[in-house]
Design goal:
Length: 305
């Protein structure tokens, strides 16, 4: 399990679920199963866990445990699957939004610029859109928007122009093709940081990650019992901003809406950790990919809170 993916902030995140006897819990991002294994270890015999992952590669890591329901789908559909399995409410929901170590380390998945491999980047390998399709089919304006909005790339328009010029000479199919096309756009001495932003932008576009996150948060409001916990681990500013805003104001934009009678800000969650939780120096030393993780824990409010 540890070779496939090392779970981040394992104790802190599962502690945040506040697992109770007979509870119903949801792990939206199974990955290598580290968080799910710890949840199962802490559950009593009457408690149940439903876990989700859209990547078929994880199927070999799903344990045989009668308390676990595993669903091989994107978590943006988790409310529908809860209904399908007869779950009305959940007592806790956990989402670790990072890309698994396995996906980064398997060259043919195309998530990393470390390998000269096909530009795939699909978390759901049954999906149609790949990073190569984005680079070869999007017009220059749409490409620039992807790089700017999802990667916060400063020279997004110049980068998009380079892609369009480069693909005119031949389709961009591999990371090597891509690098040769955009090499002049990459700032000197900042190559890894720049490419990380560019690849992040492509990955988010291919997988619709931010839209899925927003849909998940909206569904969490509906399915969590009053007092139930929402535990989310983010890895970059775009997703963390969405989570922070939603927990504070009930929407991804952070727009505070007041009720017309009392003028109170309408909130669905109480944030339990006022200061964001980050990995210890010891954890980062063991698992460098944990260094950008941020953990937020919130409790579902009742109508009277």
């Amino acid at each position: 399990m540890s070779e496939y993916h090392v779970p981040v902030l394992l104790k802190e995140s599962v502690d945040g679920l506040d697992i109770q006897a007979g509870g119903r819990y949801v792990d939206l991002t199974f990955g290598g199963g580290g968080h799910s294994a710890e949840i199962l270890r802490r559950m009593d015999g009457d408690a149940r866990l439903m876990a989700f992952d859209q990547d078929e590669d994880v199927l070999g890591h799903v344990p045989e445990d009668g308390r676990l329901i595993f669903v091989n789908h994107n978590f943006r559909y988790f409310r529908n699957f809860m209904r399908y399995y007869g779950w009305e409410k959940a007592d806790g929901i956990l989402a670790d939004l990072g890309v698994s170590s396995h996906e980064f380390d398997e060259a043919e998945r195309g998530f990393s610029f470390r390998f000269d491999a096909a530009l795939d980047m699909r978390m759901n390998q049954r999906g149609r859109l790949t990073a190569a399709e984005v680079l070869n089919r999007y017009d220059v304006g749409r490409l620039a928007a992807v790089f700017k909005e999802y990667g916060e790339v400063e020279n997004a328009r110049r980068l998009a122009d380079a892609v369009v010029r480069g693909r005119a000479e031949g389709e961009i199919r591999t990371s090597g093709d891509f690098y040769r096309v955009i090499e002049a756009c990459i700032p000197k001495m900042k190559e890894k940081k720049y490419l990380a932003k560019v690849y992040q932008a492509l990955r988010i576009e291919v997988n619709g990650e931010l839209d899925a996150l927003k849909e998940m948060l909206e569904q969490a409001v509906e399915v969590l019992r009053p007092g139930g916990r929402l535990v989310v681990i983010t890895y970059h500013s775009l997703e963390d901003r969405i989570v922070k805003n939603f927990l504070k104001a009930g929407n991804a934009e952070g727009r505070e809406e007041k009720d017309v009678v009392f003028g109170h800000v309408a909130r669905s969650f109480e944030v339990l950790n006022r200061k964001v939780i980050v990995p210890s120096d010891e954890e980062v030393a063991r698992n460098p990919r944990a260094r950008s993780a941020k953990l937020r824990i919130a409790k579902r409010l009742t109508m009277n809170d």
